[in-house]
Amino acid sequence: MKIVVAVTNVIDLTQPYHIPTEESKLTSYVPTLNPWDEFALEAALQIKEKYGAELIAISVGELQQESALRKALALGCDSALRIENDSKSLRNDQIASILAAAIRKIGDIDIAFCGRQSIDIENGTTASMLAERLNWPYLSLISKVEAINHGIFTAQKSFFNQLLTISVQFPIVVSASKEFGEARFPSFMGMRRAARAVIESWPLLDLGLELNQIFQADSRIEKIVTGPILHQLISEENEVNIANILDQKVSEALS
Amino acid sequence: MTNLPVLIVLLGTDNLGESLSSLVSAANLFTAGGSQTSDLLYIGPENNQVLLTAASFGISRLFHLPINIVEIMQKSFLPTLENFLKSKPFRAIFFSNMPLPLEISAHMGAALQTQLITAVDTITVNDGITTVTRKILAGNARQVFNLKDQPVILTINMACFSAPEAFSATHFLETIPIANDLSEERIKVISSTVIQQFVALEHSRVIVAGGRGLLSNPNPTPAGIPAGEIEQWKYEQGFNLLKNLAEKLNGSVGVSRALVDAGYAPYELQIGQTGKTVAPEVYIACGISGALQHTMGMRHSKLVIAINKDARAPIFEVAHVGVIGDLYKILPEWVKLRK
Questions:
Q1: What are the C-alpha distances in Å from B14 to residues A152, B22, B43, B74?
Q2: Are B141 and B18 in a shared domain?
Q3: Same structural domain for residues B251 and B157?
């Protein structure tokens, strides 16, 4: 079985970062592996441990993405591949096209794992778009793998007040929910191995891909001023009055 | 081009009443001042309520793709939907920003080579230019898109669009069935169990959340509780207080990470960066200091009320209404008020 896990660095929102007026200039931040990609990695690693699989971590972007790939290697991926691209304003449909072309070029992939969404821009569309590009079925937010047998993948997914057991034939695109379990920590040996690993990189041109240029609206970024939003501070009043004021606020907000 | 109709897509898995009113409200803002009409595409089992609600909102054309709920999850209708959307030009297509509609909108965006903007929270029209915005970077910034005449797909952050005015005139709704040309399901359902239906934190309109402050319970501990279990007792008292208030306000209870890490509260209730991200109408933070990892999970909430004894607690920086006081004195009065 051969599995790719698409990973990416995102902005570590707990660290300081600069908010420019254009998305392409959003470059001054501390990068960190996207937490949702860690859940996908965890799911893939559990499959590798139980059923045996070759895991390939893949990322699209500039050299900076290597730290995300090294973390994936440290956790237990067998190899890592970066598709070189310096553009800072790739859209998700373009990333999906690049991933699809890379997956075709690698060949014989059974599962393409994706994170649910990035924690910084939060679109959550790449996995669906990748499935569309590959014309593979997409199993979203699975919570447990039940069985993998003769190319049939059986998993659990909660859907509309039901817990479904569903099965589908390889190849597939999959994203994992949080219920899959907390992401593990890399082992010391894994970190040493990852630090020394040579990460393969393919120029985008090698994929022979013409990036689709769909019409885009003009866009910009505006910083939301996070000054004090407090418009009422209540202190030194008796509790009954406070309860009345708060209840009134809640009633207004819900009406 | 600008006179093309807009299309609202409603799925049988959506919360029908609420989703439809938010979607119509968003579509009305989009078409404000123009002469476009809004059509509705309903994908799901026969439902008279959808018909009536759509008519009451002034929608005159309803396209219906009749499939059952599980077939929506299997997504074998996607080619039918793609063909339908390719055969009829629309100015804009609206989905709700729930997980399944988002997946479908992303698939259509890629298939139709049309720009997709997700989690839209405002729509305005000024001098003929339509502007939509969405929040990014945990609410610290917004992306602003100035739309031109090209078609666009939007997913709507439903909490941000309230119900539109009902349409008063007598109204005729034309229903147009779509040929149910389903390809074979690639995703097969082996079995299903009904799980307990509870209001998930993400869908609650009101959340009453507690933090470490629950452990500073001033009430005297009853005799006979071993010293090692006093904190547990204090937590349970506090939790019940939050639960009582949440029930009165038709809401749910959440907690901060401190209580989960201490082993008092289950992980499913945790709100924050490594827990759930919520955006209710009302978020009441009780005894929560407000570390960034917590506020990242709740700062989209429309009204944040913070109750904390410590006037310097950072939670007051993200609160609209702050109370410097003891939750153990205020919440019981609040519960009494709602009796």
A1: 30, 11, 10, 15
A2: yes
A3: no
A229–B contact, CB cutoff 8 A: yes
Residues of B in contact with A89 (CB under 8 A): none
Q: DSSP string covering B220-247, please?
A: PPPTT--GGGHHHHHHHHHHHHHHHHHH
- Paired strand residues for A147: A154
The answer to whether residue A196 sits within a structural domain is yes
Cα(B28)–Cα(B15) distance, integer angstroms: 20
ipTM: 0.90
- pLDDT tens-digit map of B145-177: 999 888 999 999 887 887 787 765 556 778 888
Among chain A residues, CA nearest to B187: A168
pLDDT digits (tens, 9 = 90+) for B188-219: 999 998 875 445 687 788 999 999 999 999 98
Residues B208 and B314 in one domain: yes
When divided into structural domains, chain A yields a total of: 1
Asked whether residue A151 is assigned to any structural domain, the reply reads yes
Look at B330 and A219 and tell me if their CB atoms are within 8 Å: no
CATH number at A98 reads 3.40.50.620
**What is the spatial distance between Cα A47 and Cα A63, in angstroms, rounded to a whole number?**
29
| Interface check A225 vs B, CB under 8 A | no
Q: Residue A235: closest CA among chain B residues belongs to which residue?
A: B324
Range B42-72 burial, b when 16+ CB lie within 10 A, else e: bbbeeeeebbebbbbbbbbbbbbbebeebbb
Over range B289-300, report the average pLDDT.
Answer: 87
What pLDDT, in 10s, does the model give residues A141-197? 898 999 999 999 999 998 877 889 999 999 999 998 776 766 788 999 999 999 999
- Same structural domain, B277 and B151: no
Question: Is the pLDDT reported for residue B236 higher than 90?
Answer: yes
According to DSSP, the residues that pair with B305 across neighbouring strands are: B284, B321
pTM: 0.84
State whether B26 and B169 are in the same domain: yes
CB contact B137 to A (< 8 Å): yes
**Residues of chain B with C-beta less than 8 angstroms from the C-beta of A233:** 316, 321-324
State phi, psi for A51 to the nearest 5 degrees.
Answer: -115, -10
Partner B contacted by A181 (CB < 8 A): no
Backbone angles phi, psi at B184, to 5 degrees: -65, 140
Q: What's the CATH code of the domain at B315?
A: 3.40.50.1220
Residue B193 lies in a domain: no
Cβ <8 Å between A11 and B113 = no
Element (H, E) at B78: helix B78-87
Q: How far apart are the first and last CA of chain A?
A: 55
One-letter amino acid identity for B82?
A: E
- Edge-to-edge, what's the strand order for the sheet holding B61-65? A218-223, B141-147, B129-136, B115-126, B152-156, B92-96, B6-11, B38-43, B61-65, B174-177
Low-confidence winner among A175-179, A201-205, A220-224 (lowest mean pLDDT)? A175-179
Instruction: State the Cα torsion A99-A105-A110-A111 to the nearest 10°.
Output: -10
Which residue segment(s) compose the domain that B318 sits in? Answer: 201-337
Tokens at B90, concatenated: 């629309």
Enclosing domain of residue A136: 2-207
In a domain, B1, yes or no: no
Q: How many beta-carbon pairs below 8 A join chains A and B?
A: 228
